[in-house]
Every structure is written in C-alpha cells, then in structure tokens.
Task: structure prediction
Amino acid sequence: MPLSLSEQAARRRTFAIISHPDAGKTTLTENLLLAGGAIRAAGEVAARGERRRTTSDWMKIERDRGISVSASVMTFEFGGNVYNLLDTPGHEDFSEDTYRTLTAADCAIMVLDAAKGIEPQTLKLFEVCRMRDIPIITFINKLDREALDPLELLDEVADKLQLDTAPLYWPAGSGNRFGGMVDLRTDEYLPYFKQAPGEAFTPGSTDRTSLAAVREKLDPGALTELEEGSELAREALPKMDRQAFLEGHLTPVVFGTALRHFGVGELLATLEEFAPAPRPQKVHRKDVAGELNRDDEGVAGFVFKIQANMDPNHRDRIAFLRLCSGEFRRGMRLKTIAGKQVNVHNPLMFLAQDREIAETAYAGDVIGVPNHGQLRVGDSLSESGDVRFAGIPNFAPEILRRARAKDPMKAKHLRKALEGLAEEGVTQLFKPSIGSDMIVGAVGALQIDVMAERMVTEYGLDVVFEPAPYNVARWISSDDEAKIVAFLDKNKSASGTDLDGAPVYLAKNSWDVSYAAEKNPDIRFTATKERSA
Ligand code: G4P
Result:
C-alpha cells in the first residue's frame, strides 16, 4: 500500500554536518553514504568525480583552489527512512552559505577532531544551530591518531558550547593504542581493526563482542583508560535524554575514525534512533502567526540557497527549496506571497551520484527549482501563495569593497550584475546614502573572488574591488521610526541601504559602532538580519 502523506513526511530525516575545516567532514560524508548504501565502495572515486562534474565544474576557482564552494544535497534511503544530507562548504571563507543551509536542517552532526576539540569554525556554526534550536549529534573523529583525553574533550564541549554531553560509547585509548569502544548502554564491546583507507570493508555496524573476550588483546594502557574513563563517564555525565536533545540542550556522542570506517555505522544508527522528523515551522498566513506541520495539506517551503550554472550548458539558476508540508508533485504551480508564480516542471532531486527529476517530494525533502532569476534566498513558496516563513539570516559582512567597472561606460551594467549576484546570495550589496558607489559585502574573502570570477565569465565585466571607506556594516532598527530617520539624517556619510532597502549603518570600525550604539540607545545595531518574503 502506498504510504500516506503523514507517513512519508514522518520518515524524512534532513541533516547537515558541521565542522572546522580538516576535521574530516568530507571523509565522514563519503563513509556515511557508503554505510547507508547510497554509494558502493568501488564507486567511491567515481562518485567524487561525478559530484565534481555536477555541482562544481562550473567554476574554475574551485579547481584552482581545490575546494568545493557549492553546497548541495544528497538523498539516500536507509532502514525505511529517507535521509537528506545537506552538504555545506567547509572552507572558512565561505561560511555564509553554510549558515543559510543550516536553516533548512532539522538536525546536525558536529564533527570534532579528537586531537583538537572545539575549533573556531565549529563554534561559529554551533551558534547558528543554537539560534535555531537545531539538535546536535557529536562525532569525535580521528581516534586512530593520538587524541586528547575523552573526558577533557567532553568537558570542553560542555564549557564552550554550554551543551550537555551524553556519550553513547567510550573509546579504548587512541592512536596506535586505539582498541575500539564500549557501548555504554549495552556494555558490548566493538573491537577496532586497523584498516587501510580505501580497503574493501562491509559497510554498516562493527561486530560486537564482550570486553572480557578481547581484553587480553588490548594495549594495557588503553584498557586502563577505557575502564577508568567509562566508569567516570557513567557516573558523572548525563544519560541520553531524547527531549533534552530535541530542545538542543544535550548532545549524544559517538567516537570513531571516518578514514578507517570505524564508528560510522554507529553514527548512522544514532541518527536513525534520534534524528527528528521534519519539525513544525513558524509561519505567517495572511499575516497571522501560526505553525505549519509536516503533514499539513498544501505544499509550502522556503528557498535557502540559489546556485547558478550548475550545468555549464545552461545559464539557469537552481533555487534549493526546502519543503515543509504537503505532497509536492511534478508540474505543480507554486507562488510567493508577492504573487510571483513558478511552474515546477523539472524539479531536481539530488542523489548521491546523480541528479534526477523528482516526481513527488515531501516535508524535509529539498528540491532544485530551475528558474531564470525570479526566486531569491528567503522566498517562501506555497500552493496557496499566502504562507510566509520566518526568515533566512543575513550576516553582517566582515569585508566591504567598493566595486568599480574598469570601463566607466559599463556602470549601469555593473549595477545590474551586482544586484543579480546579491539576489542569489553570493554577496551582499549596499548603496551609501551619498554618492553613486556600490559597496559589496562578504563574510569571507573567497566570496569576493567568486564574484570577480563570475563578473568576467557571466557578465563580461572587468571589475575592480577596491577598499571601501567603511569596514563594518550593521542593520539598524528601532520601535520608533522617527529615531531612525533622525539618525540617518545626522549620519548621511555613514549610512545607506541594503538590497531590500533596509537601513544600514556603515562604519569605519567596530569602535564607531559601539560609540553610535551608546549615543543612540533607542536604536538597535544588529549583525544579522532575517529576510523573508
Ligand atoms: P574536511 O572536509 O572537514 O575539511 O576534512 P577531510 O574529510 O577532507 O579530512 C581532512 C584530512 O583529515 C584528510 O587528510 C583526511 O584524510 C584526514 N582524515 C579524515 N578523517 C580521518 C580519520 O579518522 N583519521 C585520520 N588519521 N585522518 C582522517 P589529508 O591528508 O588532508 O587529505 P587526503 O590526502 O587524505 O585526502
């Protein structure tokens, strides 16, 4: 019997992986897909090549720098559930995309390098998860290398992230002494056999035995660490609590080594056991606040990412639409609250190794909607056209540059191009109150490089990005509109508007911002803005 709308939605698990560059996100992604049966071991390399072709070949910069700028989504079925893994670019310069992708996830896996613990990028990404109360499963990776004491690692998580940790396993040593881990809930032992990277292995869970059966074989130091550490962990650390996890207060912890395929099956099992189905979303319907449930009739979703030129032969853009309710069928007509309509004839689904046309999709799924620029990041799309989701965050840029076309005759052309790329969310665009400058803002320097590259290849424009007279941008708001008007009037040379026309304070440095905030207590100076339409 075909599954009902509510059964289909209930089996979706949409998650992202967050980590500091080099912690092992790519390796883990590949191994999760292997363990989930989405790719075959022999196809590992081919899958990499394929992914590069479908999502990344469009940009020379990616090849030059050897990094993946474009985020995508990979779907696989495992144990009756449908998993949508939202891939987030790992490069620290390109984090804005990552932030936005997290708004479309119901759960995140946080990967930590066992030798390094919490790193700066982990912290930043975690903060976005916290803003959205996204529950987090922790994977402590690289146990095959010398690691920090696991108790110390968990203490660091608790301290720096204010997040309780509930280890589900406990490791026996690390590096050369690494012998496996004990399942703290069942007392079974999972022995570790050193495997060469890329060596054939059976995907899925590791064989289980008892500690008594293997203790002779373990390194004596590792055995002591295991026995003492696991006892302390049992006594002193919280037990897994589903509710606390779903509310974002507690994280279950799995240990392993993605490169050696150990612990990945257990991580997948943890995802299966605890990752939530699509959760209710806060929405406005005809300006009345309410909630949208995954099994509500009527398709609704929001655009969290736009990608151009995924296929070099077409100049289309793909809007990534995260569905939140209803049964989507190919050919459906969806509307924004502003009345824009999109006929979705060729929605794309992204499987691990390929893309295909989606015939149906449900809450939690992400479909690619080809369009010619009608759709923007933060747009709400629904069958009824009256659903508006809470916004997608914009983050205050950390780099501001004045954009100038080398050929002065092309100023108008330049404006159009900058607006186009800002609508896609590649960079932000600010228009100062005085003068005709166009100021481009980015969270990371790489965004500027990407923009310059696309200016040449797509718009045929040679653009110089010069230092701007400002270095910091803050959105300003107030309960008293008159205060904003007065502030803008007084600070004409240090203010402007963003792409949506929202007022922005453009300052030389953060000291200026603090000073202005002190002098104008009725005005809020914020580093994030939520856009929803
Ligand atoms: P990222 O996406 O988070 O940036 O990390 P990625 O998976 O690319 O891993 C970064 C490096 O860490 C890679 O080594 C990878 O092989 C290694 N690595 C990942 N998981 C483990 C693990 O469990 N144990 C050990 N020992 N290493 C791990 P690389 O030398 O930079 O690249 P490569 O030449 O191996 O591809």
Summary: Residues 15-67+107-274 form a domain with the Rossmann fold fold (CATH 3.40.50.300). Residues 19, 21-27, 90, 141-142, 144-145, 257-259 surround guanosine-5',3'-tetraphosphate (CB under 6 Å). The chain has 15 helices and 34 strands.
